[in-house]
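DM from R.C. (forwarded with permission)

"hey, sorry to bug you on a friday — could you get me a structure for this? deadline for the figure draft is monday and I only need the backbone to look sensible"
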Amino acid sequence: MSDLRERAEALDTADELAPLRELFVLDDTVYLDGNSLGALPRHVPERMRDVLTREWGSLRIRSWDESGWWTAPERIGDRIAPLVGAAPGQIVVGDSTSVNVFKAVVAATRLAGEGRDEILVDATTFPTDGYIAGSAARMTGHRLVPVAPDEVPAALGPRTAAVLLNHVDFRTGRLHDLPALTAAVQGAGALAVWDLCHSAGALPVGLDAHGVDLAVGCTYKYLNGGPGSPAYLYVAERHQAAFDSPLPGWTSHADPFGMTPGYTPAEGSVRGRVGTPDILSMLALEAALDVWDGVPVEAVRAKSLALTDFFLECVAAYAPAGRVTPVTPAAHAERGSQVSLRCEDAEETEAVMGALVERGVVGDLRRPDILRFGFTPLYVGFADAERAARILAEVLAV
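My reply, with the result:
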């Protein structure tokens, strides 16, 4: 046990990202739930005081122009773009992930053209993605085909219009092969739509490099944008001229203040907008993204893998035999930035996580029997990983 503590201390000392921890509001808790809600960057409250008192309080409606409110969705999209491997002008921020999934899936079916009447959806996907895909299928007259990600290539055919996939499985932390699956989908003449909620800010995505068609993601997990912060929609530049949103709101109009009855879409990523932007949440997100200045995603990925490797090693060394079993893949190429452990006794899962939280280790659970621990490399250290594993072992031994 002392050897692992000493190694954790040495690893933290050598960690080039360790100073970033000071940019966040943290306490003595081991916070391993950043894959659900990221920690608050320290400077965001002061920025929001200015937004509330000066931009809204003093300038009021003038802030749409003078404070840049109107252009915030595209401006902040360009801040997110490098984190997911996209060139500027392809990401617009706004609405929820669910709304953006709907936009992307329906638009993908329209881009696919005639004769394609099937939507494939990740059978293990986050529930809302499945619900939205099912509704999109009913509304467009398509057939919904749930399929496991590794079975997608075999399920593709001439009737496939779009495929909706999660980059990282929210339960297990499994990282799916975005380049290979995208190539397979496009090789069959369909469009690939990726949900990046559990990968953006934790690992390189490479949207442009791998030719992804459409993608969506949230900003309150590894991007630390705050509870309910707006999501984003990526539309590859080659698709923007033909992108036909199922929600053609006034802010995506070519002349939004013309107030004409007919709809003419704007050019570029602006087509992904719908209604009036949620400015307060959006500007909090913009400020939060400052913590990424000068931080290479590759360095974040390297630390993520090192942290999860070390945590798994500590769990193996400390936990009573047979009480928990890792379900997150051991292979780096198949692992996101979380570790999921299956409890031997499903009924005790909630009690175990409750005891962990009481003792200062915050993770979460997915019923019936999965304990989830998210590792956010910007502020989680190796001593956190060792302490979490040690306390987990103590809880399991009771």
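R.C.: lifesaver. The radius of gyration is 22 Å.
me: no worries. The first strand starts at residue 30 and ends at 31.
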